[in-house]
Specification:
Order of helices and strands: EHHHHEHEHHEHHHHHHHHH
CATH architecture: 3-Layer(aba) Sandwich
Shape: globular
CATH superfamily: P-loop containing nucleotide triphosphate hydrolases
CATH class: Alpha Beta
Radius of gyration: 20 Å
Structural class: alpha/beta
CATH topology: Rossmann fold
Number of strands: 4
Number of helices: 16
Largest sheet: 4 strands, parallel
Number of domains: 1
Helix content: 55-70%
């Protein structure tokens, strides 16, 4: 059982209401997919997060969902891109609280007003709270589906380095690589029993018609299956090969060999899930084993770095005692948070 996913109350049956949840790591093409589905007629709840230089054609994200998840992450003391396996238990405990569950339920119910039957929700933070949203869809009898976007891990890290941190270091790159495997392995596990699909970012950019058609067929999306010629022209204007702007490899991103091997194995098995029509228990077993090995690797790294962590805590206490301002922690791994930070701190954080 996934922590924070128990005890839903069921509403009366409401046919033909569908929710598509786009999950997985940020900078993996999640925005391109969300905006594509939106252009075909699925609803992205308003208002939306505004476009910026990192996503000039838009994020396809509901501002309410982003703000809701941000509050939940702060309460759990978890970052958007958190490499700690423990972070899943922390967000799971917050997800199990009655107040946020009811808040998500009421908000989601309000999105299916008259004439709206298909909604798409996308946010890099969403993977931490899959159980909470699952509960809401069960209570509302909404048919939920999950799309996990796949992009070469080294490109994900490189893209985050370019757009999320103007003063990136090798340590930051390692942390981002570790957060990728942590997020992807646990997202895969959390959606394993659900209706889901894996889509490669490169496939979406190269010829979006193939993966979008498959999603429409697999999930029974009326807006996709009945798209007009005008809708299709809008997508051709939206999906631009130039969106694929970062092509970093492991030659460009310095990651310890032990971590890189686990990332490469994870990428291989997730790719198999994307290719196969039916998932096998062998694939699931392999991913479970990798997740176990990553937990062991992270615990070993924590034990080795304990002296550094203790020194950092002592330094923070010293700052508080002396009244010296501390640099704010990186609580987010998205440009929207950086845009909300103003003044000298905003410039320093990039």
């Amino acid at each position: 059982m996934i922590l924070g996913d128990s005890g839903p109350e069921f509403s009366q049956a409401t046919p033909n209401r569908r929710g598509v949840f786009i999950v997985g790591s940020g900078r993996s093409g999640t925005s391109a997919l969300a905006c594509t589905l939106q252009s075909l007629g699925l609803r992205v709840p308003q208002p939306e997060v505004p476009p910026d230089d990192s996503n000039p054609k838009g994020f396809g994200e509901s501002q309410w969902v982003v703000d809701f998840h941000d509050r939940m992450l702060r309460r759990a003391n978890v970052r958007v891109a958190d490499a700690r396996p423990q972070a899943w238990f922390d967000t799971g405990r917050v997800s199990a609280l009655e107040k946020p569950r009811e808040e998500a339920f009421q908000w989601l119910a309000s999105q299916f007003d008259e004439g709206v039957s298909e909604v798409v929700l996308k946010d890099p933070r969403m993977a931490w709270f899959i159980g909470l949203w699952r509960s809401a869809t069960l209570r509302l009898n909404i048919e939920s589906s999950y799309v996990i976007m796949l992009r070469t891990p080294s490109e994900v890290v490189g893209s985050k380095q370019k757009y999320y941190s103007a003063h990136a270091t090798d340590v930051s790159a390692v942390s981002r690589a570790a957060s990728w495997i942590n997020q992807m392995l646990h997202t895969e596990r959390a959606t394993r029993e659900e209706r889901r699909a894996f889509v490669h970012y490169s496939s979406l950019i190269d010829d979006w018609t193939i993966p979008i058609y498959r999603l429409g067929q697999r999930f029974g999306l009326e807006a996709v299956n009945s798209a007009s010629a005008r809708d299709l022209r809008n997508i051709h204007d939206l999906i631009d090969p130039d969106l694929h702007r970062v092509h970093t490899t492991w030659e460009d991103v310095r990651v310890p060999k032990s971590l890189r091997l686990l990332i490469d194995e994870t990428w291989h098995h997730l790719g198999n899930l994307a290719k196969d029509e039916e998932e096998s228990t062998d694939q699931h077993t392999a991913l479970d084993q990798i997740r176990h090995e990553y937990v062991q690797l992270y615990e070993e790294a924590e034990a080795i770095a304990q002296s550094s962590m203790l020194a950092a805590r002592k330094k923070r206490r010293s700052h508080r005692t002396s009244g010296t301002p501390e640099a704010p922690p990186e609580t987010s791994d998205s440009p929207s948070a950086a845009l909300r930070t103003t003044g000298i701190l905003g410039r320093l954080r990039g």
